[in-house]
UniProtKB/TrEMBL annotation:
Gene3D superfamilies (UniProt xref): Aspartate Aminotransferase, domain 1, Type I PLP-dependent aspartate aminotransferase-like (Major domain)
Requisite cofactors: pyridoxal 5'-phosphate
Protein name: Alanine transaminase ALT2
The keyword Cytoplasm appears for this protein: no
SUPFAM superfamilies (alphabetical): PLP-dependent transferases
Organism: Rhizophagus irregularis (strain DAOM 197198w) (Glomus intraradices)
Amino acid sequence: MDTCHQLDIVLASGASDALSLAISVLCNEGQNILLPRPGFSLYQTLSESKGIECRYYNLLPDRNWETDLDHLSSLIDDKTACLLINNPSNPCGSNFTRQHLESILSLCEIYKLPVICDEIYEDMVYGDNIFYPLANLTKTVPILKISGLAKRYLIPGWRVGWIFIYDYNNILNEVRSGLASLANLILGANSLIQNALPDIIMNTPQSFHDETDKLLEENAKLSANVLGKIPGLHVIVPQGAMYMMVGINIEEFKDINNDIEFSEKLVQEESVLCLPGKSFHYPNYVRIVTTAPAEKLNEAYQRIKEFCARYHV
Ligand SMILES: Cc1ncc(COP(=O)(O)O)c(C=O)c1O
């Protein structure tokens, strides 16, 4: 935040609203936006509602969900308005290395692409992983950083999010005034919580964040250990956020043809709810949320194990 002037901060009604403002201001109807696959479905909902074409660049499960940069480059044309990246990621639970973020930035330099960087899970990484805010790694690529209170402070219902504008070379002057106008279209973010914001940000003890990250790390390890041993499933061990993607070797299951059928049958037969990968444009995976207490996770994983045993051939 120290590199951002106060005029470069736009408050919004949650990160969702911040994303809506950022997409509206950078993209015109008829242009296209580059979105991650797998990725958070709200990006598509917001973009398509504004007449913007969504183009999905692949993330690579075998490389901790890093971006396939060649694929990304192949999607860019003169109608590409911006790149959206989400780090750490929902649904992947991945956290990009500094080197990978720099490679993405080099590509943005070449194609002169501004970036919407959704960092709502910023700092929520564990193990040896380090979170690098994208905007700290460039002085040339203009960035609209999205974040908010929902995840880091575990208060999704309080509805305050924000955009930080990083634009050292004044490329985004019109965008800056556009955002100010768009932010005034509605009466804005929750005023009660806006008032409490300085206190929340400055005075939340570090121990609160440390405990959250510890719980997420322990739960991620538990989830990867248990689910990784179930025949028919494979896991990508998460590095951050509160999610894990679990691959289904669909050809090894009888009477289950895809991730939607897997999720539907699992909730019907075992009352365990996982979102199908299709919700993130990524078939034959399911997304696990790793925030529940360990005993609840263990119970859910035992049920998943029994469910898989019934259908695995
Ligand atoms: C990647 C990502 N971005 C943005 C949001 C929206 O956050 P908010 O609750 O602040 O609108 C979410 C919520 O799940 C998310 O996962």
